[in-house]
Each structure stands twice: as C-alpha cells, then as structure tokens.
Amino acid sequence: MTHIRTVPTEPIEGQKPGTSGLRKKTTVFQSHHYLENFIQSIWNGIGGVEGKTLVLGGDGRHFNSQAAQVVLRMAAASGAKKVIVGERALLSTPAASNLIRKRGADGGIILSASHNPGGPEGDFGVKYNAGNGGPAPEGITDKIFEATKTITEFRILDSQDVGLAGTGTVMLGDMEIEIVDPVADYAELMKEIFDFDAIHALFRSGFTMRFDAMHAVTGPYARMILEEELGAGPGTVINAIPLPDFGKGHPDPNPIWAKTLMDEMMGDHAPDFGAASDGDGDRNMIVGKHCYVTPSDSLAVLAANATLVPAYAEGLKGVARSMPTSGAVDRVAEGLGIDCYATPTGWKFFGNLLDAGRATLCGEESAGTGSDHVREKDGLWAVLFWLNVLARKQCLVAELMDAHWKEYGRNYYSRHDYEGVDSEAANGLMDHVREQLGVLPGNEVAGMKVTSAEEFAYDDPVDGSRAEKQGLQIGFEGGSRLVLRLSGTGTEGATLRVYLEKVETDPAKFALDPQVALAPVIAAAEAIAGIKTRTGRDAPDVIT
Ligand code: VG1
Ligand code: CO
C-alpha cells in the first residue's frame, strides 16, 4: 500500500547551491527534513515533476542509498511519470548526463559531493541536472534557492524501500522505476567516440597502465572498459570497488591525494601511463612515466590532437576553459583558427556553448575535461582520449609534452589552496585585493609590471546572462597571471584558491620545478594579498 503524505515544514537556511550543487556535511543532510526540503524545493523551482521522466544516481558515498529512496518517494508523490535509476543507485556524473540525453529525460538528480571526502564525518551533496544533461544553470539554481526560502510543506510517499539491486522495472505507486546497469550505456558511448581498435593494439604491444579509481564510482566503469573491452591487463585498475567512505581517502585526483599512484609513476618500475578519477568520476588526472601533466596542459594537448579521435576527426568547433585555467589551450585554438572562450569556474557555464555548437572541448584547471558528448566533465573519457592519442602517435606522454611545449611554449601553472580559513578573514583578503584593482595596473609588484587587474564577470554569448564576481584576475608583463577566488564547493569555513601562471617560451627553461618557475608570481600574490598574515597560514594546505 502506498499513501502520499503532505508534511508541513519550514525553510532551512543556507540551502544555496554552490559551484556544483548543494554540498554539506553528511550529518547536515541527515538532519530533520534537510534533504526533503531541498528535493521539494528542486521540484518547486523547476515547475514541478508531474508527468516528467528523471534520471537518478550517485557516487555511492555514505547516505547515497537512503537519499535515493527519499528522492524516489518524493518523485512518486509529486506525480513523476518515471525515474531511470542506476543499479544500487550508482551512476557516475558523466554516465548520468549521458542517460538524461540518451533517454530524452527531463532532468536528473545526482547524489554526490564529488571530490569531497565521504562517510558519516564527510560530505554529501545533491545536484539537479537539466534536460540537456548538464548542471542546472544559475537561472534555475536561483529559483531552487528561492524555493528553499518559502517552502511550507513537502510531499512524500509512505512506502517500503525499493529494491535497487538487479536491473528491471518496478512500480512505486503510479510511477515507473527502471533500474539500469550503470556502465552499459556509457561504455557504448565511449566505443562510438574512440578508436578502440588502436587502443586495444596499444595494450597488446605491451603498453602498461595503472588507473586509480580511488575507491570511488569509476571503478566498475574502468574495469569494464579498460580491462575487459580494451585488454589492459588485469590489475590495471586499482582501488576499483566503490566504498561509502572511499576507503577513508580523499577522492580528488591530484598529485597530493593520489600520491600512491604518483609515487609509482615517478618510480623505477613505472608503467607507461597512469590516471585517476574522483568521487563521482568527472575529474581526471593524467600522468606519464616520470611525467605529470597539469589539467591545463592536458586540455591543450587534447585540443591539438583531437582529430586523431574518430568523433573529432572533422575538427573542433571551438574550445572553452574556465578563467583560472591556464592559457595553454588559447594558443592551440589560435593555431587552429577556432574560438576559445573563458568562462567562470564550474561546468554549468559550458552548457550553453556546447548546446549552441560553439565549443567541442572544455576544461578546467581542477582536473575537469569534457566535450559535447555529454554535458558534464568526464574522467574516463579524458583517459581514453589520451590513450587514443598515444596509440595513434605511438609515443610516450613525456615525448608528447616535449613536442607540445616546443611548438606552443610552456605555461607553468600551479594552484595553492588555503582550506578551512576563517570566512571573515577570507572575505577581508578578497576585499583588500579588490580595493587595489584600480591602482595596480602600471605598477611594479615583486619585480613584475602589472598590465591588468579586474574582477572577472562573464556575459554568456548564447543567452546573454551575466555572472559577476567570478574571481580577481591580475595580469603581468610577459603573460604571467594571478587569480584569486573563494571556493564554492567547500563545507567548512572558506577555501581560498590562488591560481598562478607563467608563460615560458625558451626551451632551455622547460624542465623547471613549477614552484621555482612561478616564484615571482607567488611573491606577487603575497605582496598584493598579504595571504600569510590574513589567513594566519605559513603555507598552502594543498599545492597542485
Ligand atoms: C571546484 C573546482 C571547479 C569544479 C568544481 C566541481 O570548485 O575549482 O573547477 O568545477 O569544484 O568539481 P570550487 O568552487 O571549490 O573552486 V567536482 O568534480 O567537485 O563536481
Ligand atoms: Co567530481
């Protein structure tokens, strides 16, 4: 028996979606009516779900299963026609995006806090994706946030949990639930995009690889595609079983959090190629034998070699990067004679460019790369892209990077994160820099002349919407650049991100330690922002 219950509730403060959905401590999401309020506010913000088809899945972190049951009951109670859900409520973010598009769904709910740690003490998150498969643009998230402030009741079905182990179709009240294999459609899409024969031949020739799934959602995808379909040896994928607390790790694929993989790749017995992905499978780290590739460089290399991939053989329509991402891809675009867009941080800003056919490839310095095949960044896709390029060029990562830098120059790049900073101190620091924007240009800081200083705002060329206050950007003579912004995904205090870039065109200087190469920009950041005194920190918490 099922019965729809209407439960009176009151607005809960702070349910404002950030860079990528609403992220809070798991305990906060588990608190009284927190999840229910937010889900009902999504329904209210998007004009209801009556008669709609939704996709549902998550990265498997603690509370994923329970939250999925709540979403199902609330979708049924509000008259949704159908929910397509991944088995055991699992779906990587790119796989969810693909399903929404492929099945013509009206939208979807992704349960994930992505690269944030999981578990009872960790973080949880909920994101709404629209009918194009992409994260809801600000116009929609603003409406959802407004709805959280005026909510008075939510509707939920009284029913038992729906069994989600095993594919098939079940009914929940009048709503159909289709439980699908989370990997199958995604694997099919990858086959359509890449030259699987060439990659298969590469592995057959003895090419070795290690993929660290970081105990997160990509494990089953990587096992299926790399080991089974493409013939990479068994054991290629490590930490392949998704765990609710990611094995107590931090599922963020960068040299700090994927240190085991980094150590192997820099060691004496390094495989030819290494890669990792994050909690929800939309980020990627690329590392060759003794050669780490920054995400900004990765985007540039993929753009330069895209025509080796069957799906992009006819060339790219354009490329886009988030503003803090290095300008390496800009020079590739210039060489190709295609447009290059700089957008605010967060994948939702790429959606319109992709939908309008203005950009084919997009990327962010935070290890996100993707294309118009879905409307999310896609970790495993980026790894397959690299494999496809290496297979076709018959070279190693280090050789490819050398050749790339010789042709385009090298953008030294690093990001310094100061985490859990007192919010007032962090805002004070940003205000302090903001006040200097008008006077900085023309002045010299730490031996470098400032050429530009601005607070980044973005005018979407497709729908004309404007996003303001998207980071402080300071340019120096010779193409060096400093960007400061506060994170919109953290759940504790404020996280200050300091992005540093320096362009080097002298091949004799291509082998420097990035922190050494960037020393003048790091000094300028300190001089302009007074980071040490204002945050009370001697050094960043994380350097990537
Ligand atoms: C961070 C990254 C941003 C990325 C976002 C979501 O946001 O900087 O580039 O799009 O995380 O990534 P912020 O606001 O903390 O800087 V994921 O893989 O966590 O969905
Ligand atoms: Co992610």
UniProtKB/TrEMBL annotation:
Record's keyword annotation contains Metal-binding: yes
Q: Which InterPro entries match?
A: A-D-PHexomutase_a/b/a-I, A-D-PHexomutase_a/b/a-I/II/III, A-D-PHexomutase_a/b/a-II, A-D-PHexomutase_a/b/a-III, A-D-PHexomutase_C_sf, A-D-PHexomutase_CS, Alpha-D-phosphohexomutase_SF, PGM
Give one Pfam family, short name only: PGM_PMM_II
Please name the GO terms that the record assigns under molecular function: magnesium ion binding; phosphoglucomutase activity
Region listing for Disordered, in residue ranges: 1-22
* Cellular component GO terms held in the UniProt record: cytosol
Cofactors demanded by this protein: Mg(2+)
Report keywords, A-Z: Isomerase, Magnesium, Metal-binding, Phosphoprotein
The biological processes this protein is annotated with in GO are:
carbohydrate metabolic process
Question: Known catalysed reaction(s)?
Answer: alpha-D-glucose 1-phosphate = alpha-D-glucose 6-phosphate
**Its EC number(s):** 5.4.2.2
Residues in domain Alpha-D-phosphohexomutase alpha/beta/alpha?
15-153, 185-287, 296-408
Q: Which PROSITE patterns does the annotation name?
A: PGM_PMM (PS00710)
UniProt-listed NCBIfam families = PRK07564.1-1
Q: Which family does it belong to?
A: Belongs to the phosphohexose mutase family.
Q: What is this protein called?
A: phosphoglucomutase (alpha-D-glucose-1,6-bisphosphate-dependent)
Organism of origin: Alloyangia pacifica
Q: Upper lineage ranks? A: Bacteria, Pseudomonadati, Pseudomonadota, Alphaproteobacteria, Rhodobacterales
